[in-house]
Amino acid sequence: xxxxxxxxxxxxxxxxxxxxxxxxxxxxxIVELRRHSEGFSWQTYTGLVVDDTARDRSWGFAVRRQPxxxxxxxxxxxxxxxxxxxxxxxxxxxxxxxxxxxxxxVLGMPFYAMERVEGEVPVQWNAHDHSALLDPSDRSRxxxxxxxxxxxxxxxPVEQTGLAPADGSPPAIAAIDHWEQFIDESxxxxxxxxxxxxxxxxxHLVDSERVTLCHGDYRIGNFMVADRDIVAILDWELAHAGxxxxxxxxxxLPLFRGRSPLMSHLLPIDEALQLYQSFSGQKVNSExxxxxxxxxxxxxxxxxxxxxxxxxxxxxxxxxxxAMGHQVSHILRVLNSLI
Length: 339
Description:
There is one protein chain. By secondary structure, this protein is α+β, with helices and mostly antiparallel strands. It has helices at about 10-25, 75-85, 130-135, 135-155, 170-185, 190-205, 245-250, 270-280, 285-310, 320-335; strands spanning about 30-35, 45-50, 60-65, 95-100, 110-115, 210-215, 225, 230-235, 240, 260-265, 265-270.
């Protein structure tokens, strides 16, 4: 692997040794190494580690490396690993874990490794062309599983995840405070409409009186499909203890469906809400859904601003993050129509 590849050659060799040590391989060698461009926060690599002393011994892996800076800084990789560990003991489909590396000695930043899951990840900008979503019956089947898994997440014991509600505040207040602070720490030029929207949220608080595990970024682009089924839920970096309606509103944001009327390009929103009620036993209040939609748009704007700021400050050279600053205007246009 040359320096022009996904990782410098020295890092590939150190990663091979690290994986081989944990798998019991005598002469580990990495092939098929690829960096995935779908994610905008953590850095994700997949590959195959082979034991050169026994070619039939191999293991497909995925590595999540913490970036130096990015959309959701600061990062807590140990908390992510502990949450993922908890999820592997549930029916929620997630990749099996291998180990956590907290030092920067192997890849220059902390990372953890897991089993590589085979499948495709539909994303919102090519959903209409994606093979898994072309057939209406397949799309409906995947949509039902999408809602069923969401209900599973919301019943997973929060105490097993290491997550807890922020200082005992109601989820809505904790979320507003968090994203307002995040914006304060990210922006270079203030945006009055965001301040108005935050004030609107404080004046229209809705509390469903439920605190559950929330994925925090549950949508198209964060699940993997194989054989017309969801085989893995990905990207748990925004997971927290909160109001479960947040996940529903987030999955239905216009950002993740474009001109499609379908939640995350999967299901009509009314059908998705009815399914959620049947799987969870909980009815979704329309006022709560509207509140979390407004707050979801604020939440969506925040990392976009953070991304642009990271690029402008020279902390990343990823042009995708620079371009995200331009997408804020679309978020603001939708936000303005709702408050």
